């Protein structure tokens, strides 16, 4: 019994080590860049105290914020579905008793999800269900094969942080990108002067020998290249935040009863930003938890025309979740489907009932 157990432990350690290679690579690059910038540039080449002190001060402030955001992104556990979304064993056995009978399985899931805040469905208007986790999937959640769980508001699994970017750490991830970009731009801007002098035949630096030149030159080019990649990635995620959309939803829009709608959760730019960063603007630059909601229920605003959502309605007195955003999220109730055989041609049947009860 000990041999298989030891073998399994060894395989687990190897898998975790391989997954950590991108993180180790980033930390090694960061350690070398710290040595090159602090020692070779600020302490060795910058002779003016008026320059070296501000350089070191700004660099270390950005570095602390970057590492704080990076480690928060790495070590924040992705939130899973609450226990009430998990099928009891007897219900799951009943669900799997006849796998061929899809209509019966759909009816079981609908009965179980009757009191759950479900607003999105499969392409066939069935309840989204994860057979591996044995749960009804909350809205915007997806199963991550790497984390081996259904993750709330999953954006993507990022190998550079060895973690799922999701509802739990999305703010930290964006700050990690922002401070990484800021640090690369600052390093490139403060080293370019010396890189140019190394190639200028009119300066003494060109004929001076020393390994510091290689470090500073490589530091400049690496910071410049990382700036380009981080800028494109940060710009894309800022766009997603402004639309209240995840990476997965940008490729596969969520399916509502009205149809697939990539703008279904779009509340308007300002409210979308508050969903991720919270209402306290002064806390936005810091990687602390200020997000709104609980990651299971998400407001749908049907009164914002610029959201271009299929859910938009021009009925002035229609109550929507954003109208009651100051209430506790436990007030959300499920979408009640009165008839499983409801015809799409039945114009009198309600397609989407109120999500809030006071």
TrEMBL record:
Range of residues in the leader sequence: none
Stretches assigned to the Palmitoyltransferase DHHC domain: 125-251
Record keywords: Acyltransferase, Membrane, Transferase, Transmembrane, Transmembrane helix
A GO cellular component entry from the record: membrane
Reactions listed under catalytic activity: L-cysteinyl-[protein] + hexadecanoyl-CoA = S-hexadecanoyl-L-cysteinyl-[protein] + CoA
Keyword rRNA-binding: no
Cellular location(s): Membrane
EC number: 2.3.1.225
Segments crossing the lipid bilayer: 20-39, 51-71, 172-196, 216-239
Pfam families noted in UniProt: DHHC
One annotated GO molecular function: protein-cysteine S-palmitoyltransferase activity
Membrane protein topology class: Multi-pass membrane protein
UniProt xrefs under InterPro entries: Palmitoyltrfase_DHHC, PFA4/ZDH16/20/ERF2-like
Taxonomy, superkingdom: Eukaryota
Family listed: Belongs to the DHHC palmitoyltransferase family.
Domain notes: The DHHC domain is required for palmitoyltransferase activity.
Protein name per Swiss-Prot or TrEMBL: Palmitoyltransferase
């Amino acid at each position: 019994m000990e041999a298989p157990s030891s073998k399994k432990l060894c395989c687990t350690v190897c898998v975790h080590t391989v997954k950590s290679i991108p993180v180790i690579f980033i930390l090694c690059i960061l350690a070398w860049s710290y040595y090159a910038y602090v020692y070779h540039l600020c302490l060795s080449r910058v002779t003016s105290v008026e320059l070296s002190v501000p350089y070191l001060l700004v660099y270390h402030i950005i570095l602390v914020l970057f590492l704080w955001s990076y480690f928060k992104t790495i070590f924040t556990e992705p939130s899973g579905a609450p226990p009430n979304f998990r099928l009891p064993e007897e219900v799951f056995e009943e669900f799997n008793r006849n796998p061929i009978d899809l209509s019966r399985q759909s009816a079981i899931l609908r009965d179980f999800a009757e009191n759950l805040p479900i607003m999105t469905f499969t392409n066939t208007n069935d309840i989204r269900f994860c057979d591996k986790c044995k749960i009804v999937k909350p809205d915007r959640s997806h199963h991550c094969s790497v984390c081996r769980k259904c993750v709330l508001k999953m954006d993507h699994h990022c190998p550079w942080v060895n973690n799922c970017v999701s509802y739990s750490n999305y703010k930290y991830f964006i700050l990690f990108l922002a401070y990484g970009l800021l640090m690369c731009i600052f390093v490139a801007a403060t080293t370019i002067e010396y890189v140019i002098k190394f190639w200028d035949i009119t300066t003494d630096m060109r004929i001076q020998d020393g390994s510091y030149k290689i470090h500073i030159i490589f530091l400049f080019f690496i910071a410049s290249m990382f700036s380009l990649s981080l800028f494109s990635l940060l710009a894309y995620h800022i766009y997603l935040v402004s639309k209240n959309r995840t990476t997965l939803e940008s490729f596969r829009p969520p399916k509502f009863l009205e149809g697939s709608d990539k703008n279904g959760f779009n509340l308007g730019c300002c409210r979308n930003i508050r969903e991720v960063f919270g209402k306290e603007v002064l806390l936005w630059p810091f990687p602390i938890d200020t997000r709104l909601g609980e990651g299971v229920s998400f407001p749908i605003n049907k009164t914002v025309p610029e959201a271009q959502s299929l859910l938009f309605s021009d009925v002035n007195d229609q109550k929507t979740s954003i109208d009651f955003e100051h209430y506790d999220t436990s007030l959300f109730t499920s979408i009640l489907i009165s008839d499983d055989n409801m015809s799409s041609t039945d114009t009198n049947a309600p397609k989407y009932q109120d999500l809030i009860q006071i």
